[in-house]
Amino acid sequence: MSTSSITIEVLLFSVLRERVGAGHVEVTVPAPTTARGVLEAVVEAYPSVADYERVVRIAVNQEYVTDEAPVQAGDEVALITPVSGG
Do residues 86 and 56 touch, judged by C-beta distance below 8 A? Predict the structure, then answer.
């Protein structure tokens, strides 16, 4: 039995963009996967974002989703941290 995988482009905002040094990254995850699975793959590939794993919001196709939301090839995934201003 072979396991299939998909490559997902992940958009990064705010401090995540600063930590990684790019506005987007690609991660390969097993198919099927969830929003949480994509986040975990990003943290594994870029450990510098692990400090924000608990506060990040995940959006799929421009809508906030829960960790269990399915993610498919071609979906737009964005990781967004809370922003404060003054």
Answer: no
